[in-house]
Amino acid sequence: ELVSEDWTLRARAWYYIEVYADPVDEETVYVLNAPMVKSVDGGQNFTRVSVPHGDTHDLWIHPDDNEVMINANDGGANVSFNGGESWSTQRNQPTAQFYRVNVDNRFPYHVYGGQQDNSSVAIASFGNGGITWKDWYPVGGCESAYTAFDPDDPRFVYAGCYMGIISEYDHRTAGSRDIGVYPVLPAALQGREMKYRYNWNAPIVASPHDPSTIYHASNILVRTRERGMNWQEISPDLTRDEDEKQDYGGGPITNEGAGGEIYGTIYYVVESEHEMG
Fewer CB within 10 Å: C terminus or N terminus of the chain? Predict the structure, then answer.
């Protein structure tokens, strides 16, 4: 029986939706999605539950005291003793989820990476008095970022994001600018409608022979030697280009409009250290 038409309950259904019944009150139910929502009338109406971090994936409710619960999300875990009115902090746990990391040759060397449902970050490998969460800083792109730079002089950091977003971060000015290959965000399009099909983790790499040469991959490999002011296609479509896999992503309940399910993409790129190009 359909009791609610609230679209929030089924957003990104292919990726996550968890439903939890309150073990004490049969009329109370929680649904976990990008937000966390709660119903106290058997699922007919829902209100949002404020949590420290989005993309909520798991919930434990004390079987005898429904005021006590633990929420797990893309930022870590939080405890509530008042039914979700307030939560414990996430700044006491090393729970970032890194897709990959890169390092430069400075002393101390710096570590770079993109962290799930957070920003890209960089940090020195050593600090006076230790390293804390305050020592991290973003370097452009977003959660799914590859990071590329000259390891000997990482003034400019090239960092990516989903659907072809790529930026250049300048360490001297702490400024960031968009240098996308094609100035269109293909949100909610079919794969076959996109000029370039980008993986959620679209590769961005610097040439080991000339670090000012940056490669970026979709279904086609492109290259810039001008800090992203101009890009040159240097390959044909390197995928199978299977049309039956280029429909709307995320179905059949909702369209995955954020680029999490795009097929026919280049997943990894590396330039030979022995031969340029």
Answer: N
